[in-house]
Structures are given as structure tokens and as C-alpha cells.
Write a structure and sequence with these properties.
Blueprint lengths: L2 H23 L1 H56 L3 H75 L4 H28 L2 H42 L1
Length: about 240
């Protein structure tokens, strides 16, 4: 293999790969091209079938014409014989033989062309069915592609969330707020352990103890008054 042959093969390989990638990127165009090509062939096949059907009809019409003419000759021949017109009778006999031979051949031709027409029509119907099937496949495959593309985009979006700037910003804000809350908690804890806070607790306990002593004294005085009153009542009785 020469150098230029290798270059040509390499170029053809690159070209085939490029075409293949382009086709994968646009499957709808590939399907449409395939469907259009089949529709074109269907039209050509339809014309061919039309020619076969035309030939069948032509042979049938010619056969019917010959059979009709033979029937007329068979009707004319006895009359010529009865009239002793040998010349006319001879012509009619010759025409009869010709017609019978033509009819026999036309019957064979008609049978062949009828088989061809039937096969051609069946092939035409089958080919049309293949086109419809390809159209359904196109719709199904494109729907699957659309669904797959949507799922891939969603998956890529979910995978990319952790690196998005807004998510990083939210994480920074959350961390800052947590730090501020921790600082506030530390301040509260320190304040609770300070000297001023302990003194305040002592004052609160002292005030509470004084108030409770006053309450006990008041209860004692009321009890004493009640007892004195009850004693005075008993003496008078």
C-alpha cells in the first residue's frame, strides 16, 4: 500500500468518525433521512407496481377481446358451412386457429402477470408497514433520548451543587452564625461565674430569708392574738 493510499484511508476513517459523531448528536435528523429515503423508494416501488398492474389489465383486456372474437367466429363458421361458402369458411377456420393459439398464450401471460402483481402489491404494503414502524421507532427513541437528557441534566445539577458559589456562601454564613452563638454562650457562662453575679445571688437569698422570717413572725403574732381572744371568751362564760 502506497503512502497516499494510507493517507486516503486515514482521512476516510476520520471522516467516518466525524459523520458518526454528527449523527449521534442529531438522531432526529438521521431518522428523518432514513424515513425520507424509504418514502422515496416506496414511491418508486409504487410506480413499478402500477406498471405491473397496468400490464395485467392490458393482458386481461386483450384476452377478453380475443375470447369474444373467438366466440363470434365460432358462431359465424356454421353459417358459412351451411352456405357452402368454402372461401369464407376457410378464412374463419384460420382465424379461429390463430385466436385459440393467442388465447392460450394470453392465459399463460395473464397467470404470470397476476402472480407478479399480487407479489408486488404485498411487497408494497409490507414496505409501507416498515415505514410506519420506523416512524414509531423514531418517536419512541426520541422520547427516550429526551427523558435521558433530562435525567442527566438533573444529575449534573445535583452533583454540582456542592461547588456552587451560592452554596459555599450559605455554608460560610451558617458557620459564622454558629460562631456568634458560641461566643454569646461563653459570655453568659463567664457572667454567671463572676464576683458580681455571686454577690447578687447572695443578696437574693438574704432578701428571701428576711421576708420568710417576717412572714413567720406575722403568723406567730396572729396565732397569739387568736389564742388570747379565745381565752378571754372562756373567762366570761
Amino acid at each position: 500500500m502506497s503512502f497516499f493510499d494510507r493517507i486516503s484511508n486515514l482521512w476516510n476513517g476520520f471522516w467516518s468518525l466525524w459523520i458518526s459523531d454528527r449523527e449521534k448528536a442529531n438522531p432526529e435528523a438521521v431518522y428523518e433521512a432514513a424515513i425520507d429515503e424509504r418514502i422515496k423508494k416506496h414511491h418508486e416501488l409504487k410506480k413499478a407496481v402500477g406498471g405491473i398492474v397496468y400490464l395485467r389489465n392490458k393482458v386481461t383486456a386483450e384476452l377478453e377481446g380475443k375470447e369474444k372474437e373467438l366466440k363470434e367466429v365460432n358462431q359465424q363458421l356454421p353459417i358459412a358451412l351451411e352456405s357452402n361458402d368454402d372461401e369464407v369458411a376457410l378464412i374463419l377456420l384460420q382465424r379461429k386457429n390463430e385466436l385459440e393459439k393467442s388465447i392460450e398464450q394470453l392465459q399463460v401471460d395473464k397467470q404470470k402477470v397476476e402472480v407478479q402483481a399480487t407479489d408486488a402489491k404485498n411487497a408494497l404494503v409490507q414496505f409501507k408497514g416498515e415505514i410506519d414502524k420506523l416512524k414509531r421507532e423514531r418517536d419512541e427513541m426520541l422520547a427516550k433520548k429526551a427523558t435521558a437528557d433530562a435525567r442527566i441534566k438533573i444529575q449534573e445539577s445535583l452533583e454540582g451543587l456542592s461547588t456552587d458559589a451560592d452554596i459555599k456562601a450559605l455554608e460560610g454564613v451558617r458557620e459564622h452564625i454558629s460562631q456568634l452563638q458560641a461566643q454569646a454562650d461563653v459570655g453568659t457562662e463567664i457572667q454567671g461565674e463572676s464576683l458580681e453575679a455571686r454577690l447578687k445571688k447572695v443578696k437574693e437569698k438574704t432578701a428571701d430569708s428576711t421576708a420568710r422570717s417576717q412572714l413567720d413572725e406575722m403568723k406567730r403574732q396572729l396565732a397569739a392574738q387568736k389564742a388570747a381572744t379565745e381565752g378571754a371568751v372562756k373567762k366570761t362564760m
